[in-house]
Inverse folding.
């Protein structure tokens, strides 16, 4: 957690403590309007609806002629599915501020939450002609909320687009555009909207962030990273932008960049298990195994029941060829959670390296059983059986895999099995099929059986099938 953020949190916590003490006693302490807003904000951030409503009630009693707290209370009631009570509060607010736009906007939200969509839209339409600027933008934003509740994601998207065309600084519309894009999948159009917002409001960190997310969904990773970097350059406390940027960097194997993002996150939040683990993964991938182990151990200290940190700790020991320690970590991971095929595959590799082939075979097969759609686990089990001089077992395993997955590498492994069994006719038959369908994968056969580079007949077949 950042230092300034920590100070603000402690200050607000002290304020809330004084408020709660006052409410539980006969103390008639007076809080200012700003303090009341901060107390409500604190409870909302803590998802304490009862506390937020109690604070809003106090504020309404204390500042009865101000519409602000009536509006806040109505908003809280709506978000807690108490729409009828909200209508009553909004009526009272209208007495003091008949021209306040938030009153009819919240009425429309309450109506839409009651599934009275036509009434909500008519109410908003009635105010469009006289509205302009941010008020008009908010009308379209609340229209989008109505469409969202009605399940009309397409119309919601275009309402948000209009809201942002009118006022690019409408951050609530941007936040909801992010959520809508996930459902509407209008990634390219979202990028165009964000570009238009950025052209008029270049320091909108939300627009840059949303643009980055849309590029990521389109697998345009470099563009996503650039946009995320702009987002947190503008707002250096934008934790989600740092985390998402780091995730893209991890996916594209840019571990140094990812590490920097994760370290920046640590300036703003108290590190947790996931943060320690992701930092450890970066160091692990960069070859700094000692440092990586330190962070995986920190993740385990945060949550001793977590499985992933033990697995990654095991991979560090495996890379250092400390196989006994690797086995211990993999077993710990499996004991925490038995449903991850990579844990069993790692354990199989460790036992293989230690020369315990029976256990290695058991765990390679277990990995394939857990993830039958994962061709790589069938291939590893089959290739192990070949190395263990069990070509018949390997062939049976490959045939079994055909019901669950497909990989050209498995086809070439079948060829290796028949060659090992001395059945060259079948080997050549399956080799010709594999070369026709997936010539580019033939190196996997040579990896399984390097001696084939001296087999003139097999090498001649490979050459003959080479695409022109």
């Amino acid at each position: 957690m950042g230092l300034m953020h920590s100070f603000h949190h402690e200050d607000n916590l002290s304020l809330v403590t004084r408020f709660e003490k006052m409410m539980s006693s006969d103390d008639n302490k007076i809080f200012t309007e700003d303090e009341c807003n901060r107390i409500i904000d604190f409870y909302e951030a803590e998802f304490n609806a009862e506390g937020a409503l109690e604070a809003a009630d106090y504020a309404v009693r204390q500042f009865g002629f101000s519409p602000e707290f009536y509006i806040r209370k109505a908003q809280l009631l709506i978000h807690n599915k108490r729409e009828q009570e909200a209508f009553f509060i909004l009526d009272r607010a209208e007495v003091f501020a008949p021209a306040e736009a938030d009153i009819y906007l919240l009425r429309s939200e309450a109506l839409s939450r009651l599934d009275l969509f036509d009434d909500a839209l008519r109410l908003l339409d009635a105010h469009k002609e006289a509205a302009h600027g941010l008020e008009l933008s908010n009308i379209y934003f609340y229209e989008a909320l109505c469409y969202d509740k009605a399940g009309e994601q397409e119309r919601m998207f275009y309402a948000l687009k209009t809201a942002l065309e009118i006022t690019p600084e409408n951050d609530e519309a941007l936040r909801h555009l992010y959520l809508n894009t996930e459902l509407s999948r209008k990634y390219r159009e979202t990028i165009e909207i964000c570009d238009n917002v950025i052209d008029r409001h270049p320091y909108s960190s939300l627009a840059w962030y949303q643009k980055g997310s849309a590029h990521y969904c389109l697998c345009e990773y470099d563009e996503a990273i650039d946009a995320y970097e702009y987002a947190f350059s503008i707002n250096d406390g934008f934790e989600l932008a740092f985390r998402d940027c780091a995730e893209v960097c991890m996916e594209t194997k840019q571990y140094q960049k990812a590490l920097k993002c994760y370290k920046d996150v640590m300036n703003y939040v108290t590190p947790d298990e996931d943060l320690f683990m992701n930092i450890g993964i970066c160091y692990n991938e960069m070859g700094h195994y000692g440092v990586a182990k330190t962070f995986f151990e920190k993740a385990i200290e945060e949550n001793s029941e977590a499985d992933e940190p033990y697995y990654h700790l095991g991979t560090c020991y495996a890379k250092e060829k400390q196989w006994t320690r690797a086995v211990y970590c993999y077993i710990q991971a499996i004991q925490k959670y038995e449903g991850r095929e990579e844990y069993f595959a790692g354990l199989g590799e460790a036992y293989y390296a230690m020369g315990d082939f029976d256990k290695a075979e058991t765990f390679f097969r277990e990995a394939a059983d857990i993830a039958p759609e994962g061709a790589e686990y069938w291939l590893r089990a089959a290739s192990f059986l070949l190395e263990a001089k069990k070509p018949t077992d390997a062939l049976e395993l490959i045939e079994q895999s055909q019901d669950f997955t497909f990989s050209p590498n498995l086809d070439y492994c079948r060829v290796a099995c028949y060659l090992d069994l001395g059945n060259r006719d079948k080997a050549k038959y399956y080799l010709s099929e594999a070369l026709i369908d997936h010539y580019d994968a033939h190196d996997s056969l040579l990896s399984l059986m390097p001696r084939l580079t001296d087999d003139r007949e097999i090498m001649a077949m490979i050459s003959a099938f080479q695409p022109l």
